[in-house]
């Protein structure tokens, strides 16, 4: 198979230095989402009905179980993020957690323990949540333990008139695969293309930087399936930094991690995080707040753990 090409621009990423200057940033985008709940197969998806405005938060790359200098307390940064999210006004309806919930391990026992602990932490937050796997959660056993603890690898749901599809592009490698693509096509065929479509997954659905596995091999096939939709938004993780990109009718948004930031691709031979600094221990760590309007437009606000000011940023 041919190696996918890279698609990166300086404008679509943040540098290490840029993180230090970044506070809460808001970007308005005319986009929204669609999918459906597994229990509602009999429900017609031709129209999801009017949209009731709501808020959700994207959390990603928490890596619970990691021990090392990149983050000396991953539980601490997860807890900090969830505490800040719980204090948001208005309160988010749910969390979208886009993979690498835990740090990968070859031990089935330890992997299950970490997944169970992560679920316990999320449950204790009292905020409803939806998760998809990252390669650290699911690649070692093709998602067997992830499914036991967290649920399906791919699925859909409707929330207040907006449809979401959660995708698995990591459990067998960085691709979706024929069966999942067939499933996606069946769901999209039942949807009105005028309905905004929202997807969430771990790896990017376009080719960011192939040498670091920042791509989905068959992402173009999914993008082609969704080409008839007027507006499509993708939320993903994996790259440990904010990115935004557009392909055809899709807006792609990479979320801030809570574990550690990665450098920009291209300049380094080996992908590795920076040691956590004493002066800026939360450098590049954060989460994303998404406000969905009645028209389906999105207001996107990226918040750093170290610089959150709810009164001025989110008022």
From TrEMBL:
Domain (Calcineurin-like phosphoesterase): residue spans on this chain: 54-241
PROSITE patterns: TAT
One Pfam family per UniProt: Metallophos
GO molecular function: hydrolase activity
Gene3D superfamilies, per the entry: 3.60.21.10
PANTHER family: METALLOPHOSPHOESTERASE, CALCINEURIN SUPERFAMILY, SERINE_THREONINE-PROTEIN PHOSPHATASE CPPED1
Name the record gives this protein: Metallophosphoesterase
Taxonomic source organism: Sulfobacillus benefaciens
Lineage, broadest ranks: Bacteria, Bacillati, Bacillota, Clostridia, Eubacteriales
């Amino acid at each position: 198979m041919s190696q996918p090409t890279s698609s990166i621009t300086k404008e679509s990423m943040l540098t290490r230095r840029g993180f230090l200057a970044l506070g809460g940033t808001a970007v308005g985008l005319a986009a929204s989402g669609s999918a459906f709940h597994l229990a509602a197969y009999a429900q017609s998806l031709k129209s999801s009905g009017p949209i009731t405005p709501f808020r959700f938060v994207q959390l990603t790359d928490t890596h619970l179980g990691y021990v090392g200098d990149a983050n000396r307390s991953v539980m601490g940064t997860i807890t900090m993020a969830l505490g800040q999210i719980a204090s948001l006004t208005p309160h988010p309806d749910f969390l979208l957690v886009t993979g690498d919930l835990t740090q990968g391990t070859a031990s089935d026992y330890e992997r299950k323990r970490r997944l169970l602990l992560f679920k316990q932490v999320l449950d204790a937050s009292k905020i409803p949540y939806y998760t998809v796997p990252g390669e650290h959660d699911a690649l070692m056993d093709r998602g067997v333990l992830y499914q036991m603890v967290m649920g399906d690898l791919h699925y859909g749901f409707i929330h207040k008139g907006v449809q979401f599809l959660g995708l698995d592009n990591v459990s067998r490698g960085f691709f979706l695969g024929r069966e999942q693509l067939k499933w996606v096509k069946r769901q999209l065929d039942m949807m009105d293309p005028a309905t905004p479509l929202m997807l969430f997954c771990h790896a990017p659905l376009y080719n960011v930087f192939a040498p670091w596995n920042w791509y989905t091999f068959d992402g173009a096939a999914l993008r082609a399936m969704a080409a008839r939709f007027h507006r499509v938004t993708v939320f993903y993780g994996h790259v440990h930094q904010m990115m935004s990109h557009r392909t055809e009718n899709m807006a792609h948004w990479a979320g801030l991690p809570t574990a550690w930031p990665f450098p920009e691709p291209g300049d380094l031979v080996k992908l590795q995080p920076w040691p956590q600094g004493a002066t800026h221990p939360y450098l590049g760590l954060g989460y994303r707040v998404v406000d969905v309007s009645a028209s389906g437009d999105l207001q996107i606000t990226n918040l750093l753990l170290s610089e959150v000011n709810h009164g001025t940023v989110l008022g």
